[in-house]
Amino acid sequence: MPLRSLFLLLAFAGVAGADPLTDADFAIAVQLREQALAGSSAYAIVESLTTEVGHRMAGSANDAKGRAWAVAKFRELGYSRVWVQPVRFPVWERGFENAAILSPRPQPLNITALGGSIGTPPGGVRGAVVRFETAADLEAAPRGSLASKIAYVANRMQRARDGSGYGAAVIARAQGAIYAARAGASAVLIRSIGTDEQSRTPHTGQMRYDNLLTRIPAAALASADADAVEAALAQGTVEVKLELGSRKRQGEYTSANVIGEIPGSEFSDEVVVIGGHLDSWDLGTGAIDNGVGVAITMSAGALIGRLPQRPRRSIRVVAFANEEQGVYGGKAYARQQAEHLAQHVLGAESDFGGGRIWRLSTRVAESALPIVERMYEVLRPLGIERGDNLASGGADLSAMRDLGMPIIALGQDGTRYFDWHHSAQDTLDKLHPEDLDYNVAVYAAMAYLAAQAGPVFGPLPAGAPRN
Ligand SMILES: [Zn+2]
Predict the structure, then answer these.
(1) Are residues 168 and 139 both part of a single domain?
(2) Dist. CA 341 → ligand 1 center (Å)
(3) Strand 187-191 to strand 125-132: parallel, antiparallel, or no bridges (unpaired)?
(4) Which domain CATH number covers 221?
(5) Which residues, in sequence order, are bridge partners of residue 86?
(6) Residue 66, strand partner residues
(7) At which of 245, 266, 285 does a domain end?
(8) 276 alpha carbon – ligand 1 mean position (Å)
(9) Are 237 and 287 in a shared domain?
(10) Residue 281 alpha carbon to ligand 1 centre in Å
(11) Domain, as residue range, for 102
(12) What is the total count of domains within the chain?
């Protein structure tokens, strides 16, 4: 017997007397899994959201429509407790966006403003393009060296099943305007953070400013348009013009997290939290990011809610407000729920598109790992791999995680996710009903077992994970 198996066996033997899960619990988890695989409501839910509401850009008219949709959908799905939790934030508006190569040979460019970017002054910004391979190279540009120039960051995101190429590439989007402004540039352009090569569809996403530096306009070029700029640069000086009508609206907007709950039969104040963010960017209809995450978790909770016998603890599904522009909904939830931290049994968030789950990772107390191993047995027939106990979970639950809430991370196949993410390609046609059923099967089985097991997964020390 391998040492690891031996260790798990011994560890499990140690808690066997206190095993909180019964054979009947596992039988119901398997039944939930099979029921979802035979056909869940997830696709119909995300179809309803993306066709009846469309995108849910934070603070837009569709933000309110999305919330009304979520309240109605929770009720329609049989959630007996439905409420909203107000969330406030400033509003950014996109406006028009145009760019072109002016010289040596004129050519229109497909761009999109990065979230939070200021607009350009009347008449736009023009300047010679200076290319940097990476954000780190731009960061190293000497102060004043880019006066009246437009900085361009060329880095390409690497495709990976777990989306691990995103972290390295996205620094250009998040920090590009800060680094370029420090060197004196009048604007910054980046190659879109996406994996769609030869595409004319640009990808947006949130950027940041440094309050001590000049704010400059920031936009992303579609990958084919980035290629065009680079081809022209290979032959000499390239002058580009950029016009953005984006701006911050006066005052703050009040949105809300929309919450639906299946009350537990025994300990209804103890909750298993699942969910995803309801907001999206505005270029597509927010199907993969993140209508689908809301749909998967709503559908999983509803399936549990239809069991003849309610779970012992509550299943809470949260459709979070404004994740895209600063995780406002997740932070507001954690501020309000900090005093109820101990009643949060386990959290899991769906925010990585509609691909199938292939790995189960956790961030739970060591003492709970034998219980997780038993829960994993329900997923093993699906071909799901067992990950480590260093999961960071998603953005919306990160504030709760940092307070010490145990996390289960259901890693999805994101091989194609970044072809469409944050772009006009984020539409319903990218989703497949059977894949969503598969996700619902995993969420329903895991959430149900956690609700039966109770507060055995924590407590964990507060603080962000170091990995
Ligand atoms: Zn998202």
Answers:
(1) yes
(2) 24
(3) unpaired
(4) 3.50.30.30
(5) 256
(6) none
(7) 245
(8) 8
(9) no
(10) 9
(11) 95-245
(12) 2
| Distance from Cα 46 to the centre of ligand 1, integer Å | 14
Examine the domain organization and report whether 319 and 192 are in the same domain: no
87 and 115 fall within a common domain: no
- Judge whether 410 lies within some domain: yes
How many angstroms is it from 438 CA to the middle of ligand 1? 19
Residue 288 CA to ligand 1 center (angstroms) comes to 8
Q: Do residues 133 and 170 share a domain?
A: yes
User: Which of 298, 292, 318, 320 has its CA nearest to residue 426?
Assistant: 292
pTM (two decimals):
0.95
71: CATH = 3.40.630.10
Cα 445 to averaged position of ligand 1 atoms, centre (Å): 23
Give 429-434's long-range contacts (Cβ < 8 A, gap of 24+). Answer: 430/287, 430/288, 430/353, 430/354, 431/43, 431/46, 431/287, 431/288, 431/292, 431/354, 432/43, 432/354, 433/39, 433/42, 433/43
Q: What are the pLDDT tens digits along the chain (467 aa)?
A: 444 444 444 444 444 446 799 999 999 999 999 999 999 999 999 999 999 999 999 999 999 999 999 999 999 999 999 999 999 999 999 999 999 999 999 999 999 999 999 999 999 999 999 999 999 999 999 999 999 999 999 999 999 999 999 999 999 999 999 999 999 999 999 999 999 999 999 999 999 999 999 999 999 999 999 999 999 999 999 999 999 999 999 999 999 999 999 999 999 999 999 999 999 999 999 999 999 999 999 999 999 999 999 999 999 999 999 999 999 999 999 999 999 999 999 999 999 999 999 999 999 999 999 999 999 999 999 999 999 999 999 999 999 999 999 999 999 999 999 999 999 999 999 999 999 999 999 999 999 999 999 999 998 988 877 55
**DSSP label of 423:** B
- Cα(292) to ligand 1 centroid in Å equals 10
Spacing, Cα 117 to ligand 1 middle (Å) = 19
CA of 305 from ligand 1 middle (Å) equals 26
Out of 245, 268, 302, a domain closes at 245
Task: Let me know if residue 464 belongs to a domain.
Answer: no
| CA atoms of 35 and 300, how far apart (whole Å) | 10
Ligand 1 mean position, distance from CA 290 (Å): 5
In a domain, 462, yes or no: no
- From the CA of 357, how far away is ligand 1's center (Å)? 16
CB 174 within 8 A of CB 138: no
Single out the residue of 327, 254, 331 nearest to residue 90, CA to CA.
Answer: 254
| CA of residue 269 to ligand 1 center, whole Å | 28
User: 11 CA to middle of ligand 1, Å?
Assistant: 37
